[in-house]
Amino acid sequence: MAEPPRVPPEMFRFTTTERADLHTAVLHAFGEAGERLETALTVEQVRERLRESGWHAPVREQELAATLKQLAGWGLLDVIFNHAGSFATAEEYERKNLHYSLTRRGEAAVAGVRHAMAALESAGALQTAVLDAIADRLRELDGLLRDPGPGRDRRIFTALQELEGHLEGLRGNTQRFNGELQRLLRVEGADLATFHEVKAATVAYLQEFVTNLEQRGDAIAAGVRAVAGHGVGVLHARALDGADLPKIPGADHATPWLAARRARWEGLRQWFAPEEGSADLRPRVRQLHDVARRAIVSLLQVLDRITDARRRSSSAAADFRTLARWFAAAPGEQDAHRLWEAAFGLGSARHAHLGHADAELIPAGVPWAQAEPVEVSALLRSRGRTERMGRTGRVRDVAALRAQRRARAGRERAELEAAWAALVTTGAMRLSRMGDLDHDTFGRLLDLLGRALAERPDSTGFRRAVTSDGRVEIVLRAPDDGAVAVLRTPEGWFRGPDYLIDVRSLGEARGEVRGGAGLRGRAAGE
Question: Angle formed by the axes of helices 439-453 and 399-423, to 10°?
């Protein structure tokens, strides 16, 4: 596992000081000047570049000098003395003699700030076009590596750079989109209409991305293995020759360049085609597929809850909140009691009028607490009335329904018999000789072919299968000549291998299929 990067402690300190805005603006001005190939600036030029970059607040001379000195102390700026210039006064010497330029650490700090701000402003995306571009570059590299001529090295370098750029874009966009997706799953929007539209659009977006994602991942994995077959070292060596790195005595640019290429290639393999010895053998693109599928399920569940909430006129929580407001607005205690009774159904006891089955056994002066209990119907609590004995319902006459079901079963049986009769052959024949079939018979044929192809072939190459009711058997063998059969039905046409088939009813004699022959006969031309 790669170690985490070590950031120099002073590299981004300029963003945390009291004058962080001025420090950042000065470094941004140096970055803008570097894009115009201005490598060094005087104090006056720094002030001018600040105004051009949008800093219009007044900056005193001492404040700007202190800022430049502080940035130089953090190792972000270099101070250069221009001894070749001519100066009329000592003040002019101090103002124009010193030139400032970004160090490598300063260039990295400017790039880091720009990258951070771009990441804050950008939105993640799942772009299938990037996956297709990665597959195209891998195919191109495979073709270029087949040509050993040095004239291809420059194109190998540019193709490798494009491949790494696409991979970096895929990783960054995927990471940002996954973060936004997880935040979306946690957000509960106040505007249910807008919230519903956003999540519905996200589900559609994810479903479009997941479609054919596995095929695209497999195509990229095949391209990675094809390029690796030429040798990753050969790829990087030829790309290095085409990179035209500066050859400066005492400086080794090739070693870190090759190390960066190897790291990028390893990242590509982890995404699409991990090696056998790697810690995680599952490609990250598969993990991305799982994350997208789980997010679709979660979003659909949230959408269902939103739809249910919109369908209901109110919820229990909303009812209780409304009731609490009514209690708070009640004029007095008696009004609150009446509201309580109306809300929770408190009133006179509904069972007080019930009496014992034999009232003469219970004297009128016996208190209710000492009297025998009275049976109370459950309907009195739920419906407000006691049970009543009614007439027994009439038994429904189902003779007509049974007749309809028997007739329908007879028709279905006749259709099934007709389909099997149309499919039963008098011997081995080619599938193409079936000719035109109606849609139901064609469905039965497909079922038979599927059952036969699901079985393992025997030593002679035949496959045998029987229908679920055990009435029809099919014996099938693949064509030796690679012929193709076309069957036509009212719903369309079917194209597939011209199998040699023998369909029979198991009521027939079964002694004809024995030994190595496997089929009752041979089709014409076999």
Answer: 70
Distance between CA atoms of residues 57 and 64, nearest Å: 12
Is the pLDDT at 526 greater than 70? The verdict is no
On whether the CB atoms of residues 258 and 238 are closer than 8 A, the answer is no
- Token couple for 215: 């095929």
CA distances from 243 to 133, 158, 239, 397 (A): 21, 8, 6, 91
DSSP per-residue letters across 440-497: HHHHHHHHHHHHHHTSPP-TTS-EEEE-TTS-EEEEEE--SS--EEEEEETTEEEEEE
Q: Could you write out the DSSP letters of every residue in 209-247?
A: HHTTHHHHHHHHHHHHHHHHHT-HHHHHHHHHHHHT---
pLDDT tens for residues 276-331?
766 667 788 787 777 777 777 776 776 676 666 655 555 677 788 888 999 999 99
How far apart (Å, rounded) are the C-alpha atoms in residues 152 and 355?
A: 107
**pLDDT 10s digits, 18-74:** 778 887 888 788 887 777 777 777 777 777 777 777 777 777 777 887 888 878 888
Whether pTM exceeds 0.90: no
Contact 206, 292 (CB under 8 A): yes
DSSP one-letter code for 18: T
